[in-house]
Design the sequence.
């Protein structure tokens, strides 16, 4: 929540209740910071699988995939070969 508040304060915008929802995550989630927008992503492990959840805004999604998800997946793929 503090990261989201800081973005709004820096821009001089008022934060709405829908923006507050962006700080709600499932128990056990690992937060992925969003350097391109306000909505963070997250990842979590469910059984033996790791899932990644990123914002639906195309620019933000692409940035988070490039910054977090693809580097992790490419390391997993190299190791598993």
Sequence:
């Amino acid at each position: 929540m503090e990261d989201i508040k800081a973005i709004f304060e820096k821009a001089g915008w008022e934060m709405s209740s829908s923006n507050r929802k962006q700080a709600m995550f499932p128990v056990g989630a690992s937060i992925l910071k969003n350097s391109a927008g306000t909505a963070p992503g997250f990842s979590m492990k469910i059984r033996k699988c790791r899932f990644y959840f990123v914002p639906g805004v195309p620019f933000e999604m692409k940035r988070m995939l490039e910054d977090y998800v693809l580097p992790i997946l490419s390391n997993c793929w190299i190791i598993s070969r």
Q: What stands out?
A: The longest strand covers residues 41-46. The chain has one domain: 2-80. The chain has three helices and three strands. Strands lie at 30-32, 41-46, 49-53.
